[in-house]
Amino acid sequence: MDTLRLTQTMARSILMGALVLFSACSDSSTPPPQQAPVTPVDQATAGTIQVQVRFTGKVPPSKELSLRSVPACAAAHPGPVYDEAISVRDGRLANVVVWIKDGLGDRRFAIPTAPVTIDQKGCLYAPPVAAVMVGQPLQFVNSDPEPHNVHGSPQIARGWNFIMSRQGSSRTVYFDKSEVGIPIRCDVHPWMLAHLSVFPHPYFAVTPSDGSVTLNNVPPGNYVLATWHRELGTKEQPVTLEPKASSRVEFTYSAP
Hints:
Shape: globular
Number of strands: 20
Distance between the termini: 43 Å
Largest sheet: 5 strands, mixed
Strand content: 35-45%
Helix content: under 10%
Structural class: mainly beta
CATH topology: Immunoglobulin-like
Strand order of the largest sheet: 9-15-14-11-12
């Protein structure tokens, strides 16, 4: 083992040891109580909001991530790995969070029991953008033989920082406050970055590669729809949903 690799190994060991001291005051492992009473949605009048997120202009070049500094991480990939923060296919933008920002009033909704999962695989977070409802379980999984720590830095909710040193380990956390775009990092592998958004209702989604999402079972009404992208920011747009109707909304981002 050369001097550089020995130094890196020692630094990771020291960091992991230090994180043990701080991991106790990290996340909440207890789900918040179910809000009651839940406001029923009238299935006879509910509709859908279909959202398309587009991108115009030249897509910025992706930057190569420095996985080569940790051979075990680089070995998990056949070639270089790039930070595709702005992921565009056929003019459609992926990894955009879409949600109803205003218009739901004081309605309350059932909390899903099925977890949303963020995996650590190949020393990357998968998916890089995720969203959950307040009180819904969020499960972190480590599929790597390499140890990781999960360090979330919200502005509103309480932050967390815990270790996942064993391959196949998992840990579930819950959130009692809503917030958009919470950064999640690994202090051991500084290129690892994900973002989490938490909402008080179920009307949210993250765009896949085709840039399209559908919000289902939405009560009729006048709403403000919002989108968030890690690099390109937030947009808002009003939308009216008639009873048993389907409204279409399009957002367009451009190169920064």
